[in-house]
Design the sequence.
């Protein structure tokens, strides 16, 4: 009968330890989620700041890339 108490107390201790670990993991997941969204926000702000900046005078003008047809037989050679 005494070993049943040992098993019950052991299970209680194991459950308490698991609960503590789960709470710690949930807290860490929430923190990582907050950090992710903050990083996304900062990235958007920096991108908007770069897009709003005037182009440099020494930078070549941007042109649309031209598309050309390349025959499949030329690619195989």
Sequence:
């Amino acid at each position: 009968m005494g070993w049943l108490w040992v098993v019950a107390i052991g299970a209680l201790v194991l459950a308490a330890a698991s609960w503590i670990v789960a709470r710690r993991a949930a807290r860490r997941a929430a923190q990582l989620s907050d950090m992710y969204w903050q990083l996304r926000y900062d990235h958007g702000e920096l991108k908007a700041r770069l897009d709003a900046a005037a182009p440099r005078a020494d930078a070549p003008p941007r042109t649309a890339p031209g598309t050309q047809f390349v025959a499949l037989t030329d690619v195989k050679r």
